[in-house]
Amino acid sequence: MNDFVLIIDIMIALFVIVIIAWYIHDKYVQRDHQLLVNYPIIGRLRYLFEEFREPFRQYFGDEKFYESKDKLDWVYKAARDLPNYASFSPSQPLPKPKFMLRHANIVLNENEVDTHFGVTFGENKKYSYHAKSIIARSAMSDGSISPEGTRAFVRGAFMGGFPINSGEGGLTSNFFVTHRNYNPSYMTEVHGTITQRFVKKVVQKLFNGAMAADVYRSLVFKKDPEAETYVFDLKSEVFHRPNWEAHLENFPEEVPEDMPDIILQLSSGLYGARDKQGNFDPDRYQKTMRFCKMTEIKMAQGAKQTGGKLIADKVSPAIAYYRNVEAHKDLFSPNRFPYANTVEELFDFVGRLQSLSNKPVGLKIVISDIENIEPYAKEIKKRIDEGNSAYPDFISIDGGSGGSATAPIEMMERIGLDARDSIYLVDKILTDYNVRDKIKLVASGKVLTPDDVIVLMSLGADFIQIARGFMMSAGCIRARYCSGTNGHECPVGLATQNKSKRKKYFVYKHAKYVRDYHNNLLKGVKGLLAVMGLSNISKLNRHRLIFVDADGKVHDNIDQVFKRRLDIGKDKEDEFYELR
Q: Which parts of the chain are coiled coil (predicted)?
């Protein structure tokens, strides 16, 4: 008993000594924090609370960035395929101004609504692309997203039968996780020894397949820095990755059936289609396009009007291999696309990509006003009149907000219009130039739920790309640590290259969540069409919408609403609306 009391006394004494030393350090030694000089020790609570502010923000306050927390809850429930009904009333009603949907007096039953939700890009191309869904996962680079996260998205897209955008990081090995029926002539294989396979089976029996694959990989590749550039097939027990050094004739003529529909995004860094010097490599581009359905040239993204930025901590040896760059160094792409010094030069490059791939090619842009889109419309019209087919098959319009990616804070909410304003404006200008039927419009920006999809498609979009919603379906808790700066890492392992965190990410579980989120989006769209009395999504147009302004006034003429919202000045107003 006496010994126990003595131990307690010693612990108390040590605690008092530490507190006194800590007090002296804060008040008389440190000169980094002014607050701690006046409030030693206790002042540190301020920094503790500040540290926890972002990851815990969503649990203790109303949702300010999205329209309502109910929409966020819808995403998480849809991903888990749970009933998505509210009782009594929304917990946080949509704020005004807002768009409303016109419902029909005599609604349809859901079985009367066409289940065809497809759209075709590049009808005049040899390999035109017929997307089976109007919804795609938007651009997320393998690099900003962890390898495990990319694999979950790829598996989810393959199971759900919807397209997936590669992001500017290009086509990496992780996009091949479902591709098993390959020809070794374009694939590099690595096999383990009998002993290594035996160890793998033991670990798999005792623990799980993910741990077994990691142990097996470490045994086979040892300290090879490019070990993670190989994907592992648990059934065949073979590691494989595309052999980009193989001759073009070895690659499949058409996209293999056991791969998802991939949209290759080509940014100013030209990743996935460049040589080691950073120049465009036609041969590599053609090889890459043997596995992709179409190409999206990224001119801009939401608030990120600068080139893509990947901090050194995220540039792993695997990412360096994929992008032909040096590992562990900041990777900042140029602001301007290298073949876009003029609109004419950009369209000529579009034509070059179309000739090399025989597939659709489009642009991703952000709109601030009419002057952002009119030069494109003029050049498209000019080339069509000349019989020149070198113009975009589609234009992706991103909303001018923070985006799911990392963007400079000074640009967020200051650059680019809302996605809805942008889509209306672009649809209007292309229609005025009589080229709208030649161009598909793709919309993205804060799209979470089926009503968001309906509003954008009513305003002119043909196709929707979603980033935030799919991120959340894949496990994102919106901690806002995606960039990896300031020592913070994504806590769920989705948007980090930190091995200790990402290795614990549940790939197969989240792949199912991704699939179910997409499926429930389409289910919700179908339900809304039925209530609106529309048998097919092609019957949507802006006259199916009503606008309620901030004062609660109802406007049923959407053209007049946008005339006020997009106040472009008297000098251009008459010209802009002359066809209305």
A: none
What are the C-alpha distances in Å from 314 to residues 164, 418, 545? 22, 30, 44
50-54, 226-230, 385-389: lowest mean pLDDT where?
Answer: 50-54
Using CA atoms, how far apart are residues 375 and 435, in angstroms rounded to an integer?
13
Residue 42 has pLDDT above 90, yes or no: no
pLDDT tens-digit profile of 508-547? 999 999 999 999 999 999 999 999 999 999 999 999 999 9
Q: Decide: 522 and 116 in contact? Cβ < 8 Å.
A: no
Average pLDDT, the chain: 89
Give CA–CA dist 500/74, Å, rounded. 30
Tokens of 81: 């395929």
CA distance 221 to 213: 12
Q: What is the pLDDT of residue 415?
A: 79
User: For the chain, first and last CA: distance in Å?
Assistant: 93
| Pairwise CA distance, residues 272 & 266, whole Å | 8
Residue 170 CA to residue 163 CA, distance in Å, equals: 15
Minimal CA–CA distance to 449: which of 174, 154, 135? 135
Instruction: Give strand pairing partners of 130.
Output: 120
Instruction: Specify the amino acid at residue 98.
Output: K
Cα atoms in the Cβ-side hemisphere of radius 13 Å centred on 428: 22
Residue written as tokens 């608030």?
303
Q: List beta partners, residue 463.
A: 442
Please give the angle made by the CA atoms of 202, 208 and 212, to the nearest 5 degrees.
Answer: 55
Q: What is the mean pLDDT of residues 554-570?
A: 80
Q: How confident is the model at residue 576 (pLDDT cuts 50, 70, 90)?
A: very low
Given a cut of 60, is residue 303 above it in pLDDT? no
Among 27-31, 116-120, 479-483, where is mean pLDDT lowest?
479-483
Is the Cβ–Cβ distance between 498 and 479 less than 8 Å? no
Q: Which residues pair with 464 in a beta bridge?
A: 135, 443
In 91-225, where does DSSP find H-type helix?
A: 147-160, 194-206, 209-221
pTM: 0.89
- The DSSP 8-state label assigned to residue 145 in this structure reads B
Cα Rg of the chain, angstroms: 27
Question: Cis link prior to 334 (omega < 30° from 0)?
Answer: no
Examine the pLDDT at 488 and tell me if it is beyond 90: no
User: Which pLDDT tens digit goes with each residue over 338-366?
Assistant: 999 999 999 999 999 999 999 999 999 99
**What CA–CA distances, in Å, run from 30 to 25, 35, 41?**
6, 11, 12
- Lookup result for tokens 């070059």: 352
Separate counts of helices (H) and strands (E) for the chain: 18, 18
Pairing of strands 238-242, 309-310: unpaired
Q: Give the amino acid at 465.
A: Q
Q: Using CA atoms, how far apart are residues 180 and 157, in angstroms rounded to an integer?
A: 16
How confident is the model at residue 569, as a pLDDT? 47
**How many Å apart are CA 419 and CA 211, to the nearest integer?**
42
How many Cα neighbours within 13 Å face the side chain of 545?
26
- Name all contacts of 493-497 with Cβ < 8 Å and 24+ positions apart: 493/146, 493/148, 493/149, 494/145, 494/146, 494/148, 494/149, 495/144, 495/145, 495/146, 495/149, 495/471, 496/146, 496/314, 497/143, 497/146, 497/313, 497/314, 497/316, 497/319
Q: Are strands 119-121 and 164-165 parallel, antiparallel or unpaired?
A: unpaired
Taking residues 432-443, report their average pLDDT: 97
